Amino acid sequence: MKGSVAIIISEKKVLLFLRDNIQTIPNPNCWSLPGGCAENGESPHQTIVRELREEVSYVPKSLIYLGYHIDFLDLSVVNVFFSRVSGEEAKNFAHTGDEGQEIKFFSFDQLFTIQLVPSLKLYLAKYQKFVKQLLEDDNLVPTPELIGLKQD
């Protein structure tokens, strides 16, 4: 299985998506990065564009492909994109109500007070220092090596 997620940062906070509270889906009622599985032979970029439109109603002007990792739990390939948006651009994000329960920007400390999907929780624990730097330094752009990603 292949999928794509986006790390979207604005004003020292990261955008997360609250999954539906339906017991038949993976990780119900947990916060995750926006994104999802590829459909019908989509490229990683096509997947993240579609998922962002579905989940948060907006695709940032600057969306950088960083690389991929193998999910800690289900061994799926996850392509990771990054965008740092201004407070003004962040106003374009909205929950449509079609998928998930809500979206919200969270500070670093808030990430430890909410129910995250297990893979994001493990990732955050492993890369905690860098995630904190990424949120606090507006000029820092992640590199694949710093956040444990691979590139083809």
In short:
The chain is α+β, with helices and mostly antiparallel strands. It has helices spanning 44-56, 87-90, 118-126, 128-136; strands at residues 2-10, 13-18, 31-32, 35-37, 64-70, 77-84, 102-106.
Structure characterization notes:
Helices cover 23% and strands 26% of the residues. It is globular and about 40 Å long. The chain has four helices and seven strands, in the order ββββαββαβαα. The chain has helices spanning 44-56, 87-90, 118-126, 128-136; strands at residues 2-10, 13-18, 31-32, 35-37, 64-70, 77-84, 102-106. It starts with a strand and ends in a 16-residue tail after the last helix.
**SS field, number of helical segments:** 4
Q: Give the mean pLDDT.
A: 94
Query: What proportion strand?
Result: 25-35%
Ends apart, CA distance between termini: 17 Å
| Overall radius of gyration | 14 Å
Major β-sheet annotation: 7 strands, mixed
H and E order: EEEEHEEHEHH
Contiguous low-pLDDT stretches (5 residues minimum) are none
Pairing-aware structural class of the strands and helices? alpha+beta
Helix content: 10-25%
Number of strands: 7
Question: Which of globular, elongated, flat, extended, rod-shaped describes the shape?
Answer: globular
